[in-house]
Amino acid sequence: MNSAIPNCYSKKILYNLLFVLRIFIFMVAVTMVVIEIREAYLFKDILHLALFSISFLVCSLQIAISRHKVVMKSQEGLGVFS
Q1: Of 18, 32, 43, 67, whose CB count within 10 A is highest?
Q2: Domain range holding 60?
């Protein structure tokens, strides 16, 4: 019995849900950008678009760092680095 993958069915469900969540997050981000661009053209307000872009990049960085930490912990637990 392979103990590295205890329950394949639950992992498939989790990965599918995470994929759907990523799609929804992407759609929300695109919608926000479209709304901000429309407001920028209507009100000539570029500051809100810049703040959204900066916060989006910071969130993306945080997600990338957390993914890296999870991968490093899982590889250390499997003994890849020893």
Answers
A1: 32
A2: 8-78
Q: Which amino acid is at 9?
A: Y
Does residue 24 lie within any of the structural domains? yes
Q: Which residue has the tokens 């499997």?
A: 78
Higher pLDDT, 43 or 37: 37
The model's pTM: 0.46
Q: Does residue 14 fall inside a structural domain?
A: yes
Local confidence band at 79 (pLDDT 50, 70, 90 cut-offs): low
Place of tokens 């009100």: 43
Q: Which of 49, 54, 57 is nearest to 33 (CA)?
A: 49
Specify if 1 maps to a domain: no
Residue 26 in this model has a pLDDT that exceeds 50: yes
Q: What share of residues in the chain are helix, strand, coil (percent, to 5)? A: 85, 0, 15
